[in-house]
């Protein structure tokens, strides 16, 4: 009987080649990491050279730079973008900030500002308030005449950077924020302390008895239609009552 030849086992050779290949990959990864670390920390390759702000209209870029503290950082890769965004959002004008790196030298910061909806009026001083009820800024009473004035009454004057704490004032801001801008722009004054709920005076001189925050969407639709009709036909009315939006009341002058 013919004896069969033994075939050499190739597995040790393959294992050895595989080990050499893995070590080569590890070496390359480590070398790349060391090179990147050197570039990041010991050269000016990723030095911040440009900071771009977009979206800010009411607060200056210089003021935002100061609030962000970004000038204390020089390296784009290690820039703490989350912290920068949070620091920017401490500014009462800034509702949201998004900070992005753009290699190799640029930081892009997108700002979303609060939308002012009213001035809280305390006779000698006034407070600009945003649609989310946060007090943006303390101003002279004659500033921003395009916004409705909300009577502050005897309530405690608010603090800039905090929400309106008085419930009736806060409700009035909520009502104004929920209105279409075209309707809000037609209002001159707001009285949160009327026993009938929120009551407004239009720039045309008639009263708007709005009530409380229930059925706001329906009230706004009805109110917008009535105000448009009154203005288009130059009607003289004393007040419009939309507390029951399915049965609004219009009192002629």
Characterization of this structure:
Helix content is 32%, strand content 27%. By secondary structure, it is an alpha/beta fold. The chain folds into two domains: 50-113, Roll (Ubiquitin-like (UB roll)); 116-252, Rossmann fold (3-Layer(aba) Sandwich). Helix 6 links the parallel strand 10 and strand 11 (237-241).
List the helices and strands and how they pair.
Layout: H1 11-42, E1 50-54, H2 61-68, H3 81-88, E2 94-102, E3 106-113, E4 116-121, E5 126-130, E6 135-139, E7 149-151, H4 167-178, H5 181-184, E8 187-194, E9 197-202, E10 207-211, H6 216-232, E11 237-241, E12 249-252
Parallel strand pairs: 1-3, 4-7, 7-8, 10-11
Antiparallel strand pairs: 2-3, 4-5, 5-6, 8-9, 9-10, 11-12
